[in-house]
Amino acid sequence: MKRFLNLANSLSLFRIIIAPVVAWNIISGRWMTASFLLVLSIFSDLLDGPIARKKGQESAAGGLLDHSCDAILVAVLLFVLTETHGIPLLLPVLVVVSFLQYVLDSKALSGHRLRTSFLGRSNGIAYFVLACLCIFSEVLEINLPDYFIVTCAWILIASTLLSMSERLWTLLTK
Question: Which residues contact 85 (CB under 8 A, 6 or more apart)?
Answer without folding.
Answer: 134, 146, 149
